[in-house]
Amino acid sequence: MTASQIAAGRTIEINGASLYVEEHGEGTPVVVAHGGLGSSMLMGGLVRLLADRFRVITFDTRGHGKSTNPSGLLRYEQIADDIAALSEALKLDRPFVGGWSDGGEFALQLGIRHPGLARGLIAGGTSLELGTEKARADMRTFFQVDSKGRVDFDAFAATIGQQLLPMMRAAHPNGEDHWKTIVQQSSEMWLIYDGLTPDQLKKIDTPVLVIAGDRDQFIPVEELTRLYRSLPAAELAILPGTDHFRPMGDPASFAELTADFMSRH
Fold first, then answer.
1. Is the Cα dihedral 174, 177, 180, 182 positive or negative?
2. Which of 101, 105, 147, 213 is the most exposed place for a label (fewest CB within 10 A)?
3. Residue 131 — left, alpha, or beta (φ > 0 → left; ψ -120 to 50 → alpha)?
């Protein structure tokens, strides 16, 4: 199969949810996880750039896109477990696992919860800031969350939502209630998340590519460096002139560094 051929999607039962999965290309497997509030469609550009050399597996995380989420809960740890179960269901032999934003955090969680499963991890657009009080305060503002933990959707749509709404509507095919459900559940996941500590990360002996942009609105370069120094077998890449959203719309540099990393491990 070549990158120009579109793989037929299918659903696979994983940990009580039906996950929508696509496969493109042949060769060494890599499981790519999308960022928060989106779906695997956001990774289409990256997939096209990698599928000529690798077997690229994408999936909609539970509740997102075409996947189900009967529990109604989202947790970083659960999605890491989903990736491990998906790898087993597809009989993948030590795949690479990675993604951008939340996808990068899922990869790190996988490295902690399922040591040795992955040949290498790609932690794109994430940092040790997740789980801190500052991050929680920023998330409350980002989601316009009230004192009872409810998202003010009108306020959300009037602020950052103006930039994200077209993407969310395209990614979630079941109408306005669908993306609103994802926003509410994601806000709950982000606000209760404890994050990762340097002591936890020291246990990951798998090679890790730590990568983000030097203009990332959410991750200062200094935080990216702190994450890198907390991992025993990490490599650091900083994308010049790049904000948090560019690697999803213009993934060429991200794809090139990811392919190089996978070719060497």
1. negative
2. 147
3. left
- Reported as a single tens digit per residue, the pLDDT across 6-41 is 456 999 999 999 999 999 999 999 999 999 999 999
Query: For domain 10-130+196-263, is the CATH number 3.40.50.1820?
Result: yes
Cβ neighbours of residue 91 closer than 8 Å, sequence gap 6 or more = none
- Where are the domains positioned within the chain? 10-130+196-263
Can you tell me the distance from the alpha carbon of 232 to that of 165, in angstroms, rounded to the nearest whole number?
A: 39
pLDDT band at 161 (very low <50, low <70, confident <90, very high): low
Q: How far is CA 264 from the centre of its chain?
A: 22
